């Protein structure tokens, strides 16, 4: 997924003179060939995140479309004030490429996890936020960033995710992967494998699950999603993010204000500091981000209703 996004940007940069890429001493192997071909369009500004964002804003003010590449906490958390004031307040065409969404960097610990980034980005009004589920969604998000003029944050994993779309989707809209009538599984990011496997298992048990990917988190197309949920009694969100400040909480806020017919349940990471040290699959097992838990949760939910 990471390579799909970056390769789309690099391919465009070979045809255009307005693209500038900045690295915060990360992903250097990803940009080796680009540095050879366009040495005047790449800078590694090292471990100096606040300076990196200020530099990106300055380059954008001179007419460049700037891409800042780093591990998600280091492109957003350490330099939040600069992202807020220098980029988003001025509505500059800077794209923050945050690598290591969710628990991707297990077992490197909580300094490298990105499980509260959607809560942070939600507080920045001009910022468009994408959480692609596969390389095709990542490519579509890259093309939007190349043409749009707004600040953008894209959270990406880097574990060789398979493609789930055959054609380039419109990632500004909810994307229905499977139709269903009993429950809707709404997700973003790389929990797609667990969600799709859960749908198959539920089908074997006679439960029809609609599966919807929601790659654009901000601005969130909730009205379009609500149209897709017509007739669905139960909605379950699944995300590798804090459960009380991600997609699920955004839908909960909308549900409280608009009172649609469907009921909402949320699966995610509880809001606590993470002290467990495991590989990513082990972390997902620990926090119930698994096929088995999704199936059990849905079966209990439908049984209660």
Based on helices, strands and strand pairing, what is the structural class? Answer: alpha/beta
> What is the fourth-level CATH superfamily of the largest domain?
Thiamin diphosphate (ThDP)-binding fold, Pyr/PP domains
Biggest sheet record: 7 strands, mixed
Distance between the termini: 38 Å
Strand content: 15-25%
**Element-level helix/strand string:** HEHEHEHHEHEHEEEHEEHEHEHH
Count of individual helical segments: 12
Give the tally of β-strands.
12
Average pLDDT rating: 95
Shape: globular
Q: Looking across the biggest beta sheet, what order are the strands in? A: 2-1-3-4-6-5-10
What is the annotated CATH architecture of the largest domain? 3-Layer(aba) Sandwich
**Structural domain tally:** 2
Instruction: Provide the CATH topology of the largest domain.
Output: Rossmann fold
CATH class of the largest domain: Alpha Beta
Q: What radius of gyration results from the CA coordinates? A: 19 Å
Helix content class: 25-40%
Spans of at least 5 consecutive residues whose pLDDT stays below 50 are none
Q: How is this structure best summarized?
A:
With 305 residues, the protein is an alpha/beta fold. It folds into two domains: 2-156, Thiamin diphosphate (ThDP)-binding fold, Pyr/PP domains (Rossmann fold); 175-304, Rossmann fold, CATH 3.40.50.920.
């Amino acid at each position: 997924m990471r390579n799909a996004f970056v390769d789309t940007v690099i391919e465009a940069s070979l045809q255009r003179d307005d693209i500038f890429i900045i690295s915060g001493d990360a992903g250097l192997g990803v940009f080796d060939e680009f540095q050879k071909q366009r040495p005047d369009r790449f800078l590694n500004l090292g471990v100096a995140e606040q300076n990196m964002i200020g530099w990106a804003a300055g380059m954008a003010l001179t007419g460049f479309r700037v891409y800042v590449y780093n591990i998600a906490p280091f492109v957003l958390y350490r330099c939040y004030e600069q992202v807020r004031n220098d980029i988003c307040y001025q509505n500059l065409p800077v794209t923050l490429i945050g690598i290591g969404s969710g628990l991707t960097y297990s077992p490197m610990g909580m300094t490298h996890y990105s499980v509260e980034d959607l809560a942070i980005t939600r507080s920045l009004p001009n910022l468009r936020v994408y959480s692609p589920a596969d390389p095709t969604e990542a490519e579509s998000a890259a093309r939007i960033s190349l043409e749009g003029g707004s600040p953008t944050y894209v959270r990406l994993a880097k574990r060789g995710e398979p493609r789930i779309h055959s054609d380039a989707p419109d990632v500004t809209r909810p994307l229905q992967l499977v139709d269903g009538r009993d429950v809707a599984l709404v997700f973003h990011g790389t929990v797609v494998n667990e969600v799709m496997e859960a749908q198959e298992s539920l089908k074997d048990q006679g439960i029809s699950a609609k599966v919807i990917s929601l790659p654009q988190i901000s601005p969130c197309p909730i009205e379009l999603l609500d149209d897709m949920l017509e007739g669905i009694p139960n909605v379950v969100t699944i995300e590798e993010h804090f459960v009380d400040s991600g997609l699920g909480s955004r839908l909960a806020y909308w549900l409280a204000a608009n009172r649609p017919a469907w009921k909402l349940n949320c699966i995610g990471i509880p809001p606590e500091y993470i002290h467990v040290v495991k590989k990513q699959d082990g972390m997902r097992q620990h926090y119930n981000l698994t096929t088995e838990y999704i199936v059990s949760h849905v079966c209990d939910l439908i049984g209660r209703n």
